[in-house]
Design a protein that fits this description.
about 325 residues, alpha/beta, 10 strands
Length: about 325
């Protein structure tokens, strides 16, 4: 019997959710692992970190939901529950029910690792979710004016006067060791997928932890970047696709073997709303490198996303279609 191919998705947030949701359709032939960034300190996740001293749970929750077995459970109801955000109640308003569930399980079982494993079993997970670290860390960005900002939420949604500043270096404090199983998952992967997601606060936020970058360098498998649809104010204003590849190479120490670029036009209504907040579609400039192949296609989800009631942070309006991405990944990456 042939060995199942191994694919690792690194990142966090809605981009990772889309990719994992698509890939789980191939879980009979592919071993899927999500390595999730753990520096989030905003919204419900940030409040729970402060109040209970737990690890960030928001991106873990979304990865678990993405890989849940839809044939065993009522996925629509489950998704509604795990993404439900309270809009009233003293102390509850703004909190996410799925986050609270993970915190409760951590308290009952004595730690976040056991909580993730327990919820994975309950959801019939078609893959694994691994925190990139179980150390408590904060993301640190140093800008081109010499200033330094600590905390993912402050980097992710900067004040207007910082929006044009360029991030020159990204790190975490304190230094951290990789979570259990992360090193083996990355180095043994047949394919490593980075993105889509906010470059510094979702993707590189995982890469700069411990020796993730050296693990990717040593990995035997292909290294793929799913190109972003839109720039991010305060992070990637003015970036084209080649600039993303260059920044990834700078932090990873290995350039992607491929970049996947969407060719479908974005809805005018969504574009107008992005333009109003200083964000723009990422121009297709290829990879900027002969060694990094470019895979182009229609990867756009058809529906425009709207913030759920009770949201306190801005979410993307347009997203990738996980099924389209997964189908082409499986087809295009020869090792899969």
């Amino acid at each position: 019997m042939d060995r199942k191919k191994k694919i690792v998705v690194i990142g966090g947030g809605t981009g990772t959710y889309s990719v994992l949701s698509g890939l789980k359709r191939y879980s009979d032939s592919v071993d899927i692992t999500a390595v999730v960034a753990m520096s989030d300190n905003g919204s419900s996740t940030g409040r729970l970190r402060d109040e209970f001293g737990v690890l960030p749970v928001g991106d873990v929750r979304m990865a678990l939901l993405a890989l849940s077995d839809e044939e065993r459970i009522d996925h629509h109801t489950l998704r509604s529950l795990l993404t439900y955000r309270f809009t009233k109640g003293e102390g509850l308003a703004g909190h996410n029910l799925g986050n609270l569930l993970l915190v409760a399980l951590s308290d009952i079982l004595g730690g976040e690792k056991d909580a993730i494993e327990s919820l994975s079993r309950l959801l019939g997970l078609r893959g694994k979710v691994l925190p990139v670290t179980t150390d408590h860390i904060s993301l640190v960005a140093r800008y081109d004016d010499g200033s330094e900002v600590v905390g993912e939420s402050s980097i992710d949604e900067p004040p207007h006067d910082r929006g044009e500043r360029i991030i020159e270096s990204l790190s975490v404090t304190p230094s951290a060791v990789l979570g259990e199983g992360v090193r083996e998952a990355i180095t043994e992967a047949d394919c490593i997928v980075l993105g889509p997601g906010d470059l510094y606060t979702s993707l590189l936020a995982a890469v700069v932890v411990g020796d993730v970058s050296s693990c990717i360098q040593k990995a035997r498998g292909s290294f793929v970047f799913i190109g972003n649809l839109m720039s991010k104010f305060g992070q990637t204003t003015g970036f084209d696709s080649a600039k993303y590849v260059a920044e990834i190479g700078k932090y990873v120490g290995r350039f992607p073997d491929a970049i996947y670029i969407n060719t479908e036009s974005l809805p005018p209504a969504a574009l107008a709303r992005y333009t109003a907040i200083g964000e723009h579609p990422v121009p297709d400039a290829g990879s900027g490198r002969d060694e990094t192949r470019v895979v182009r296609g229609d990867f756009l989800a058809k529906e425009m996303i709207r913030n759920a009631s009770g949201e306190t942070i801005k979410r993307s309006l347009v997203r990738h279609d996980g099924a389209k991405l997964a189908a082409l990944l499986i087809e295009s990456e020869s090792r899969l």
